[in-house]
Specification:
The chain is α+β, with helices and mostly antiparallel strands. The protein has 13 helices and 9 strands. The strands form 3 sheets. It has a 4-stranded antiparallel beta sheet with strand order 2-3-7-6, with no helix packed on it. A 3-stranded mixed beta sheet has the order 1-4-5, covered by helices on one side.
């Protein structure tokens, strides 16, 4: 078994790392200053637009899409513009992006845009691609994915209550969604909405996915939802009401009743992208922890010389390396045998990665003392975001259930097969 990275894998990883270190890290101060200036945080940031232009000119743009032909899609008239990295190649790049939060957007690799672009690319008509995929590829607009609902347990996607009723040449949409990430950005122009078009159909054929322009009458943002007090501006997470929203029939993606099919088509990538970035978050926390421990003196010696920290540092390095290997294994399987065959590995990495990162971040906070819970070192916000990841894209319990059922299935221990839930699907907020 060869664990050596290929020349291409190393090339793209090193280019991303070099670009981040050379151009983005020096602008962290500019980014924070611009965020705090003016009378609103919900705005387009000049810093990001400047750096996006630089990254695009350097060819570091739209990295995430698997190679053309890897999956069937309805229309080929609009080609996806980017290097079309494999999942393994992109994994190494995403890890570097995870070390600096806003870098994903700089390379046009932010969720939920990545997942939405993938849906448009794989399943969209020529018209849908021209209208929405092209401006997303160009970084001209942002998007959202509306799935989770406040009134039901959305860990089981069949619970969704949002109704999409056909009325002539239109669908009328009614429902409430929340944790709709990205709706705070003034550039968010379109959402892909999952809801029910036929409550009388078979359980997994009731749902459809439909394109909703954000300026459609009846789309009402009710409130912003902070995460542990962080607003995540200018991206943000919103609760949104869809009240008698009318969209044309041609806005349905792939066809009525094929919402779960679309979700399975994007199985894994959005979820594993989070995990790839999480490894970078953990590496960043470990680095901050070690620098702090070697620079502070307590009881006559550096904190790093106190043996309790040796165990914590060692455990952090071991856990990062194990998690990276599992993530790369999942990515490699997605590239070679497909997302469905890699479902167990995807579920495992989704449970492992955020829990691993949370432990390391917690230790890093402890090493920083009072500074760790402030915003001076970025550890508190990192913890908040990683804790959220244990819920996003299917909670730990759902993924663990899927893993256990697959394991028990080897021994005849599961009756009725494995049910489809958001743990089985690539649901992103």
């Amino acid at each position: 078994m060869d664990f050596t990275f290929t020349e291409r894998e190393t090339y793209w990883r090193d280019r991303i790392k070099s670009h981040i270190d050379t151009y983005l890290r020096p602008r962290v101060g500019d980014y924070k200053k611009e965020m705090e200036s003016g009378d609103t945080r919900w705005k387009v940031l000049k810093v990001l637009e400047e750096e996006k232009a630089r990254a695009k000119a350097a060819g570091l743009w739209n990295l995430f899409m698997p190679p053309q032909g890897a999956n069937p899609h309805l229309d080929t008239s609009v080609e996806f513009e980017g290097p079309q990295l494999t999942n393994v190649e992109y994994a190494l790049c995403a890890e570097e992006m995870g070390r600096l939060g806003f870098s994903s957007e700089v390379f046009n690799c932010s969720a939920p845009d990545t997942g939405n672009m993938e849906v448009f690319h794989r399943y969209g008509t020529a018209e849908q691609k021209k209208k929405w995929l092209v401006p997303l590829m160009n970084g001209e607009i942002r998007s959202a994915f509306l799935m989770t609902e406040p009134a039901v347990a959305s860990s089981d996607a069949t619970n969704i209550e949002t109704r999409m009723v056909r009325d002539g040449d239109e669908y009328v949409i009614n429902g409430t969604k929340w944790w709709s990430s990205g709706l705070g950005d003034p550039r968010c122009k379109v959402a892909i909405v999952m809801g029910k078009t036929d409550t009388g159909a078979q359980k997994h054929q009731q749902q459809s996915q439909i394109i909703v322009p954000m300026d459609a009458p009846g789309v009402n943002i009710l409130r912003h939802l902070p995460v542990f007090g962080y607003d995540d501006a200018p991206h943000g997470h919103m609760e949104v009401e869809l009240k008698d929203v009318r969209v044309p029939v041609e806005n349905v993606i792939l066809g009525e009743g094929r919402g779960f099919e679309i979700a399975q088509g994007r199985l894994g990538p959005g979820r594993i992208h989070h995990c790839m970035r999480t490894i970078g978050v953990a590496e960043e926390a470990l680095e901050k922890m070690c620098l702090r421990l070697t620079s502070r003196v307590a009881f006559g010696k550096t904190i790093a010389e106190h043996s309790v920290w040796h165990e914590r540092i060692a455990r952090a390095r071991i856990d990062i390396e194990m998690t990276r290997l599992l993530c790369l294994k999942a990515a490699q399987m997605m590239d070679t045998v497909g997302n469905k065959a890699a479902a167990n590995e995807i579920a495992m990495i989704k449970v492992q990665a955020p829990n691993m990162a949370l432990k390391i971040i917690d230790d890093a906070i402890q090493a920083h003392g009072g500074g760790g819970v402030s915003e001076d070192f970025g550890l508190a916000s990192a913890y908040a975001h990683q804790r959220t990841l244990r819920l996003a894209d299917g909670p730990d319990e759902v993924h663990s259930r899927s893993i256990a059922r697959m394991e028990l299935g080897k021994y005849g221990g599961v009756r009725g097969g494995v049910e489809l839930t958001s743990g089985n699907l690539a649901v992103t907020r």
